[in-house]
Amino acid sequence: MHGPAQAGWLLVALCAATGSYCLLRMRSRIEEQRRAAGGEALMGFAMALMALPAAVLTPPRWAWLAYAAVFGAAALRALWAARRNRHHLHHLVGTCAMVYMAVAMTTTPAAHTGHGGGGTPALSGVLLLYFAGYVLWSGVRLLPVPTPVPTPLPTPAAAEGPGGGTAMGWGDRTELAMACRLSMGIAMIAMLLTL
C-alpha cells in the first residue's frame, strides 16, 4: 500500500480532505445525499489511514483484519442500498476493494512497505481497470457543457438566497460531490498500483 513517503503523504492529504468534505455533505437536506456522503467519508478517512507512510505507522496484523471486517460490513450495506440506487454499486466495488487490500496486507505484510506481492494480479488488474474507467467517466462528467440559458421562473421569496437565486447548501453541490468521488478513485488507483 505504501510507496515513497511523499506519495504516501499526498495520498493522506487527498483522502483526508475528501473525507472532511464528505462530512460537510452529510448536512445536506436530501436524505440520499447524506447517506452517500457518510459512506464516502468513511472511505476517505480509511484510505487516508491506509496511505500513511510505513515509517510513521506499521499497523499490526489485527488492524488489517479490523479493516477487512469494517469494510465487509460496509460492502453488505452498499449491496442492500444498491436495490434502491445504482450509485451504491460503485460503493460496493470500493468497499470490496478495501476488503481486498486489507486482506492482502494481512497475508503479505511486505506489501505494506511498497514492495508489492500483496494481492492477486488478476483481481488487482480488474480493480485497476474499473477505477481507471470510473475516473475517466467522472472527469468527463465534470467538463463544462455549453447549454442555453433559460429564462428564470419567478421563485417564492422564502426559497431565494441572498443574491435572489435559489439557496443551495454545500452538501447539495453535485459537481463537488463528483470531484470528491473522482479524487477517491484516483487515490484507489494509486493504492492498488502499490499493492
SSE topology:
Blueprint: H1 5-25, H2 31-50, H3 61-81, H4 87-107, H5 121-142, H6 174-193
Helix pairs in contact: 1-2, 1-6, 2-4, 2-6, 3-4, 5-6
* First-last Cα distance: 5 Å
Helix content class: 55-70%
Mean pLDDT: 80
Uncertain regions: pLDDT < 50 for 5+ in a row? 157-165
* SSE series: HHHHHH
- State the domain count: 1
Radius of gyration (Å): 19 Å
Number of helices: 6
Largest sheet: none
Strand pairing plus helix content: what structural class?
mainly alpha
How many strands appear in the DSSP assignment? Answer: 0
Strand content: under 5%
Principal-axes shape call: globular
Summarize, please.
By secondary structure, the chain is an all-alpha fold. Helix content is 64%, strand content 0%. The protein has 6 helices and no strands.
Protein architecture, described:
The chain is mainly alpha-helical. It has one domain (5-143, 170-193). The protein is 64% helix and 0% strand. It contains six helices and no strands. It has helices at residues 5-25, 31-50, 61-81, 87-107, 121-142, 174-193. Helix 2 packs parallel to helix 6 and helix 5 packs antiparallel against helix 6 (174-193). The radius of gyration is 19 Å and the shape is globular.
